[in-house]
Amino acid sequence: MTTVRLPLFPLNSVLFPGLVLPLNVFEERYRAMMRELLKTPEDEPRRFAVVAIRDGHEVAPSAPGMPDPTALPERGPAAGFGPDPLTSFHKVGCVADAATIREHTDGTFEVLATGTTRVRLLSVDASGPFLTAELAPLAEEPGDEAGALAEGVLRSFRQYQKRLAGARERSLSADAELPDEPGVVSYLVAAAMMLDTPTKQRLLQAPDTASRLRDELKLLRSETAIIRSLPSLPASDLTRGTTSLN
Hints:
Blueprint: E1 4-11, E2 20-25, H1 28-37, E3 47-52, E4 92-103, E5 109-125, E6 132-137, H2 146-167, H3 182-192, H4 197-204, H5 209-228
Parallel strand pairs: 1-3
Antiparallel strand pairs: 1-6, 2-5, 3-4, 4-5, 5-6
Helix pairs in contact: 2-3, 2-5, 3-5
InterPro entries: Lon_prtase_N, Lon_prtase_N_sf, PUA-like_sf
Domain Lon N-terminal: 6-224
Protein name: LON peptidase substrate-binding domain-containing protein
């Protein structure tokens, strides 16, 4: 099995292939990661892996003494992730390619990356200034009837958008172009729906595109029915990627 070792950036959200990931990086462990990535020539990909943090595991507190007023905040590459960081993360993540890494005068970074391919998390190394991981690429198989399922998902997603716009008392462009390639459709819809992290993670690690689309079709129908009965919903941009304040 071919594996690769990359810097690891855990988030409280899921990144999908093809989706944009803007990051504001201020923790030292992630600053060190970005400084290392900047050593990569501009004509080569500056890659790192994004994994979602499991429920119940939180990033180390940024305020001294929180939540225990007598304790100091943890520091180091694995701070907040326990003695075995591997158990704190979901096992399927996504490689991100950083198109832009901009350092500010205060040492923080503004990063714009794009999800590329799914990977399986095999091991985590906390011996350096930031986490690294051994990863195995996950192939994306189309599965049975992916094309027909994608058409059904797009129709349902349009209805979902309209219901969501109505519940939020604002309009969404009916003329916005959506892709028709089944794999791209499956990831776009997974990222755009207002779902919790475990559900998005389930969609990311679906065994094939058709399975993901079938799951999304069920979710779209149920979510649309729920929205129909709600008077209002919080604002959310359906086309934006995840932003993390690590």
